[in-house]
Amino acid sequence: MKGIAAAAVAVLGGISAAQAFDGWRLERATPIPSKTAAFDYITYDPTAKRLYIGHRKEGLQVVDATSGALIGVVAGTPEASSNGATLIPELDLGISNNENGTLIPFKLSTRETSAPVRLGEELDTSHYDPTTKRLFVNMAADASGAEIAVLETPSLAKVGSIKLATKKPEHAAFDGAGVMYLASRDLDLVYRIDAKALKVTAEWPTKGCAQANSTAIDTARQRLFVACRGNDKLKPSLIVMNTASGDVGYTAEIGGGNDGLVYDPDVKRLFAANGLSAVINVFEQVDADTYKPVESVLTRPMVKVLAYDQQAQKLFSMTAEGSADASKKINTSVGPFYPNTFFPNTFTVLTYAKAPK
């Protein structure tokens, strides 16, 4: 009888483990006519159900998230080489973050653009804080570090700047109370910044996590999630930090080449996209400092960024067929064979969803 009971427990345990598996998979792959441009960030507008893709010399592309079809390109962004967009739906405002050091504002409802705002010779991306209604822009670094330019919205008038020692400012997250957490890839730390006073209030090392890159936040539990690319001593990792103290409460290995991290508080899931390993690592949040790997979803090479539809529980990314042309400069800071050439008409928008039960 004891043996039967033990077997029953084992079976039930197996069922429980199986139920924890989400079964994320590719739902749709939609090719988009393309030339040879590189690409960077992807952003989702839940109101209009549209994706905004920074396709560099092919501009800020607007894609129907339901069908994957290309709707159009924001005017002026191919010439400016768009890295991607920051979306502020409550202001009907979209902002193309451009390699040439400009921002191009546009209306989300019509794609009508306003005059470009020049901030410098080069920039990467920007982050919007709904609490202070300010835009924080990652400018290209010089020998002394990087500037975060701070603009008010919707005017985009510059109200200040934050000078940092890092030369690789990356993704940021906000706590809903006027605090910004910014990852530094080259210094292996997170800056805690007062978004109103524009002052750094703490610098927290990302212990066990080298080349901090992507961020997401759980404001209810005061936890910051940081995905790191790793180095020759530390594997690519996900860490969970206490937003009050900077203490690291959890560490786990992820795939290589991370550039995207998403947290869904409704289903308690973390998604880390890793372009070199071609995998999305999925974690379950049990409590503030307890997490369990759920699965590692095989994707395609260069699937490194993410956008997320929280209502429909769908992940979006993109990729293209490419090669590391040895006669051209290769971005070895990401990987020794990181593509620098992409082939025409191979650019593809990808949608991932949980497999039907």
From TrEMBL:
Alphabetic keyword roster: Signal
Residues making up the signal peptide according to the UniProt record: 1-20
Superkingdom field: Bacteria
Protein name, entry field: YncE family protein
Taxonomic lineage of the native organism: Bacteria, Pseudomonadati, Pseudomonadota, Alphaproteobacteria, Hyphomicrobiales
Keyword Signal: yes
Keyword Signal annotated: yes
